[in-house]
From TrEMBL:
Keywords: FAD, Flavoprotein, Oxidoreductase, Transit peptide
Name the record gives this protein: Glutaryl-CoA dehydrogenase
Lineage summary: Bacteria, Bacillati, Actinomycetota, Actinomycetes, Micromonosporales
Organism per entry: Micromonospora taraxaci
Family: Belongs to the acyl-CoA dehydrogenase family.
Boundaries of every Acyl-CoA dehydrogenase/oxidase C-terminal domain copy: 233-380
Keyword Oxidoreductase: yes
PANTHER family named in the record: GLUTARYL-COA DEHYDROGENASE, MITOCHONDRIAL (PTHR42807:SF1)
InterPro entries from the UniProt entry: Acyl-CoA_Oxase/DH_mid-dom, Acyl-CoA_Oxase/DH_mid-dom_sf, AcylCo_DH-like_C, AcylCo_DH/oxidase_C, AcylCoA_DH/ox_N, AcylCoA_DH/ox_N_sf, AcylCoA_DH/oxidase_NM_dom_sf, Glutaryl-CoA_DH_mitochondrial
Length: 387
């Protein structure tokens, strides 16, 4: 954390290795992302495959997984990497989250040895891109109602249905697809070149424009028996993958907020109105102080959850606390920072509106803020609002 925003001196509570990983990713973002990201965002085009290979070289893809070419880093180190990536752009953290925490994690946790050998090493280097198909056009927050079907035909499986809003689908080599069978929800590793699979890019997004999003149509897609992830049984399997990715977002959101606040602090120090810098006005200082306090609270929360994860004690509802708070506060920080930049706040020359727009997606995906409120509500009351 760059002074003066590290109000609580959190930096020394990281290990040397954690700081080193964070600094390497920060440098990568400075060199490789910051000079181009405004253009990628404006054009709605991002060199995702190229970036994936560069992220792979640094060991960022599936970095918290072990074996199969994965780095085996701690949860805190992975979180710090997410924080730095999202300080660049939420779309880049998304690329890493979907690859490592959703697609790779699903295969690593629930796949056969053969599936792991086939996919994980090339996904870890970024040669192969994965996506994760849970959401459907008519079923987002409630994946238990999914209508994508997988039926047996001899030894084969035949998949029919549609998945919507799938990050990286148009550029993916493999999709982890969740489908209903006669025995309940099951997962499948589906090569994207299988006949009957088509992916169409979703255009005109006003958020997460430096990220590729698509729709997957599954039209009688015939798969061999060994395409099914043998250890995945029931909705719990995809939901456990979400817990992994949501954890990364807890950290990532703080990165986006930090970038907004750093930008704003610098701006308010140099922009003069009424004969003095904006930073000298009491109202501006109140905004800056409130935002810096929320930022450091978010960082503390992320670090606490990370230490719990490294001690194998992190529960899904605790991740919901983190995702709910940190994304909500990051969005509030981005909007408040925008006011301090005045008209420049809406300009793509500054990162703030881009972060704010991105955070609208982050608030919705991986469980909307309302879903996380209800998960926390269930923890508090013992009553499920979903049943
Ligand atoms: P429910 O009955 O509560 O649970 C079914 C089983 O799953 C277990 N479980 C979890 N396990 C691990 N992690 C979690 N987060 C879990 N949540 C639930 C649960 O204990 C139960 O186990 P068992 O043994 O009793 O069978 O299920 P429900 O149908 O009532 O739904 C609960 C609800 C609403 C919380 C869940 O459906 C949900 O989380 N909905 C939100 C859907 C969502 O987040 N979709 C995200 C799609 S992927 C994405 O957005 C990628 S964005 C790109 C990027 O990350 O960058
Ligand atoms: P809905 O579920 O229709 O919800 C609409 C509104 O109703 C929300 O405010 C919600 O909180 C509220 N609501 C719903 N149920 C309740 C309730 N019980 N109580 C109170 N309020 C409720 N999905 C994937 O599977 N893979 C991906 O890679 C992926 N990437 C994405 C990338 C982007 C850019 C975006 C925007 C989405 C992505 N998603 C992905 C989809 C995302 O997970 C869903 O959008 C999200 O789960 C919400 O579903 P929905 O959009 O259908 O909204």
């Amino acid at each position: 954390m760059t002074a003066p925003l590290d109000l609580l001196d959190l930096d020394p509570s990281l290990t040397d290795e954690e700081r080193q990983i964070r600094d390497v990713v920060r440098q990568l973002v400075d060199d490789r992302v910051r000079p181009h990201v405004a253009d990628w965002y404006e054009q709605g085009q991002v060199p995702a495959r190229e970036l994936a290979r560069e992220f792979g070289k640094l060991g960022l893809l599936g970095m918290h997984l072990t074996g199969y070419g994965c780095a085996g880093a701690s949860a805190v180190a992975y979180g710090l990497a997410c924080q730095e990536l999202e300080a660049g752009d939420s779309g880049l953290r998304s690329l890493v989250s979907v690859q490592g925490s959703l697609a790779m994690y699903a295969i690593w946790r629930y796949g056969s040895e053969e599936q792991k050998q086939r996919w994980l090493p090339s996904m870890a280097t970024g040669e192969a891109i994965g996506c994760f198909g849970l959401t459907e056009p008519d079923h987002g927050s409630d994946p238990a109602s999914m209508t994508t079907r997988a039926r047996r035909d001899g030894d084969d499986w035949v998949l029919t249905g549609a998945k919507m809003w799938i990050t990286n689908a148009p550029i993916a080599d493999v999709a982890v697809i969740w489908a209903r069978t006669d025995e309940g929800v099951r997962g499948f590793a589906v090569p994207m070149d299988t006949p009957g699979v088509t992916a169409r890019e979703i255009r005109r997004k006003m958020s997460l424009r430096a990220s590729v999003t698509g729709e997957i149509a599954l039209d009688d897609v015939r798969l061999p028996a060994d395409a099914r992830l043998p250890e995945a049984s029931g909705l719990k399997a995809p939901l456990s993958c979400l817990t992994e990715a949501r954890y990364g977002i807890v950290w990532g959101a703080v990165g986006a907020a930090r970038d907004c606040l750093e930008t704003t602090l610098a701006y308010a120090g140099t922009r003069t109105q009424f004969g003095r810098p904006l930073a000298g006005f009491q109202l501006t200082q109140a905004k800056l102080a409130d935002m810096a306090v929320e930022l450091v609270k978010g960082q503390l929360l992320a670090l606490h959850l990370g230490r719990l994860a490294d001690a194998h004690r992190l529960r899904p509802d605790q991740v919901s606390v983190g995702k709910l708070n940190n994304v909500r506060e990051a969005l509030a920080i981005a909007r408040q920072c925008r006011t301090i930049l005045g008209a420049n706040g809406v300009s793509g020359e500054y990162p703030i509106m881009r972060h704010a727009n991105n955070l609208e997606s982050v608030l919705t995906y991986e469980g909307t803020s309302e879903i996380h409120q209800l998960v926390v509500g269930q923890r508090l009351t013992g009553l499920s609002a979903f049943a």
